[in-house]
Amino acid sequence: xxxxxxxxxxxxxxxxxxxxxxxxxxxxxxxxxxxxxxxxxxxxxxxxxxxxxxxxxxxxxxxxxxxxxxxxxxxxxxxxxxxxxxxxxxxxxxxxxxxxxxxxxxxxxxxxxxxxxxxxxxxxxxxxxxxxxxxxxxxxxxxxxxxxxxxxxxxxxxxxxxxxxxxxxxxxxxxxxxxxxxxxxxxxxxxxxxxxxxxxxxxxxxxxxxxxxxxxxxxxxxxxxxxxxxxxxxxxxxxxxxxxxxxxxxxxxxxxxxxxxxxxxxxxxxxxxxx
Amino acid sequence: xxxxxxxxxxxxxxxxxxxxxxxxxxxxxxxxxxxxxxxxxxxxxxxxxxxxxxxxxxxxxxxxxxxxxxxxxxxxxxxxxxxxxxxxxxxxxxxxxxxxxxxxxxxxxxxxxxxxxxxxxxxxxxxxxxxxxxxxxxxxxxxxxxxxxxxxxxxxxxxxxxxxxxxxxxxxxxxxxxxxxxxxxxxxxxxxxxxxxxxxxxxxxxxxxxxxxxxxxxxxxxxxxxxxxxxxxxxxxxxxxxxxxxxxxxxxxxxxxxxxxxxxxxxxxxxxxxxxxxxxxxxxxxxxx
Amino acid sequence: xxxxxxxxxxxxxxxxxxxxxxxxxxxxxxxxxxxxxxxxxxxxxxxxxxxxxxxxxxxxxxxxxxxxxxxxxxxxxxxxxxxxxxxxxxxxxxxxxxxxxxxxxxxxxxxxxxxxxxxxxxxxxxxxxxxxxxxxxxxxxxxxxxxxxxxxxxxxxxxxxxxxxxxxxxxxxxxxxxxxxxxxxxxxxxxxxxxxxxxxxxxxxxxxxxxxxxxxxxxxxxxxxxxxxxxxxxxxxxxxxxxxxxxxxxxxxxxxxxxxxxxxxxxxxxxxxxxxxxxxxxxxxxxxxxxx
Lengths: 275, 289, 292
Ligand SMILES: Nc1ncnc2c1ncn2[C@@H]1O[C@H](COP(=O)(O)OP(=O)(O)O)[C@@H](O)[C@H]1O
Ligand SMILES: [Mg+2]
Hints:
The structure holds 3 protein chains of 3 kinds.
Chain A: E1 2-13, E2 16-27, E3 31-35, H1 42-50, E4 57-62, E5 65-66, E6 74-77, H2 91-100, H3 111-123, H4 139-151, E7 157-160, H5 169-186, E8 189-194, E9 206-211, E10 214-218, H6 220-223, H7 226-233, E11 238-242, E12 245-249, E13 255-256, E14 272-273
Chain B: H1 2-7, H2 16-41, H3 45-53, H4 55-65, H5 69-87, H6 91-116, H7 118-121, H8 123-131, H9 142-168, H10 170-175, H11 180-221, H12 225-249, H13 262-279
Helix pairs in contact in B: 2-9, 2-11, 2-12, 3-5, 3-6, 3-11, 4-5, 4-6, 5-6, 5-11, 8-11, 9-11, 11-12, 11-13, 12-13
Chain C: H1 2-8, H2 17-42, H3 46-65, H4 70-88, H5 96-116, H6 121-128, H7 136-165, H8 167-172, H9 177-199, H10 204-218, H11 222-247, H12 251-281, H13 287-291
Helix pairs in contact in C: 2-7, 2-9, 2-10, 2-11, 3-4, 3-5, 3-9, 3-10, 4-5, 4-9, 6-9, 7-9, 10-11, 10-12, 11-12
């Protein structure tokens, strides 16, 4: 059974068509990098999987069921988490909300509860600051807490929306390694949204490339190729591999990944690349 | 011309009360409409309202000390604005700090009103402090009030660009050498002047209404800031004039035959305009291809 | 000894029935307002806490006009405002909807008062509150309703906390953010309906903002913050009763004054706590400091 199936999915906000005819199956246990420029519709895709957004047409199936809200089978790591230093919420409290935060009433502080929260904190390496106020933690530390929060229900699918945004290269690497370890231990299906494919190259099974409202899914070799991306963008694109890294050119222009808006006329004439 | 008489009751423009109401209303409307756009963009709606409310502290304090009301209003506004500024280092904190400061000032106001001994003797004063009325303004105040409104608008015009930059991107502004703190403080002072004069002239209720309503509608239906300010001013003017006109017309309306308050009409027109604006699809989602 | 006691606690403070009513009612609303206040602080929605009781005053004026119980009118207006603000919140700038709801209510209130033009002491009493004028049946009603609302807060506590801290995650777990917005504004409205007759429409929000804001700076956990705010709110209203009974100073002034004091003290404590570990981390820049 596929973990996530998109069948002829169209999404438009008013007259603005964001995704058209999305068609792909993510196999269970796969580590998928969701790559695409800003505004390509990556978050929209995630919201479809979560059931927070209904497609205008087509269907989204998650673990054999139509996508619906409230699944504890899906762990979700939102893009950002704003907290001020004075917020009276410790790391442990935040993570604990992941266990049963949506339920009525309040939770009794049982031993079992504490053990499960500690286990998750330890798994992401956050036990050391479990008692700190979340607002005083760094971006990488907060990211770990959000991951622990998402993992508490032992989900079968993990969705991460740009967990690398606002992290330096080193913390980014640590997060990627953490997720890939968790993925191989638990056989969880991972959809990892990122601007750039390069940091993920070693851990990816598949790439879901989203651009111009369309998407292709396949291995890196299958998808990140000149022909496929030219087709996706509807213009000539060249993919070059240098020392194990992937660079993308269009004509003689090369634009940093996720900054297509820098191009003249705001239309991508060349493709994301990371020098 | 019978219908015109019906629309504009006889003697409208000949009444001196109406004339000064129109002049003051116009000044307040223009000034509030301009300030309101920035107040909303900067997320300071609560502060904008609070500055109007603390006018009651100023009013009662001025009676107690025996100075002109305007000094009470301005003093209370400056104290409140500066306290909020000092107490709020972060976004969430700002509204809470505004609440704490407002509660302290209103507490003082309750004390002052109690000390004056007006609580038990006259509801008129409390109602006045709460709602105000544009028809009861002392004509001597027309000139200073118009001057205050004008000064506020001039200050905003002067800091227009740095203010905008430090609002949308404070770090970027700092790196360009914009004195963000100073610019914010200049805006705060202009805001105090604008809100206090409108609170004095029209009451706390209308001061908030004219500050937020037209600007909110304008922000929804326009996408360029210059246009937003222009639309906001036009809406505020139409709203105020219509409110004064209807209040004058309503003089013989049922049930009491004593006239309906200006504030009610201004708010009613404002709510209608805002609702109509909401029916227009939000312009910012329309993309230029 | 007895004379000191009598100086602080004037005779009758614990025996006259009207004072006993005040103790019970004030204690009930203090607990309720402090708990609602925790969420007001968490969501940074002080404006809502101010606008609802203030605007709801118009409902009392309207009720007087048509000859209905003024507290009923107050509650109806509070609930209408809460529904409007809760449902429209996500569609507009923060604060704008609150301001519009407030001025709409006040515009109607001004109309009711002007058209009515009768001296309405019970309506104006609602403006400044009547802590020492609570009847026995009112006391019972306030106490019972407060206990019920505290129960409601216990039930909605977790989803409301989740939706207020990590809204995207909450939505993904099936918590309706709109439902939580409305839950929050309704809690404020119901707490306001009980608080306004006691503390007054002008200053009811003091009790929802001040103690919880102070507790915020002292606690490390949500539970701690709620406990502190309840404690501070109780201290606030109790001090207000003792002083108010002696001096007949307006209750709103006393509540606002004591909670302001608590807030300032809490911020000072927070500031000292923050400074102490910070000192070690400060990199010395002056020449004298480097030598050390
Ligand atoms: N609720 C919404 N209403 C209108 N437009 C939206 C909405 N959500 C997303 N969009 C638009 O859809 C496009 C894709 O957005 P998103 O999925 O967030 O992109 P990204 O790939 O950067 O995550 C953007 O152009 C965005 O403006
Ligand atoms: Mg996104």
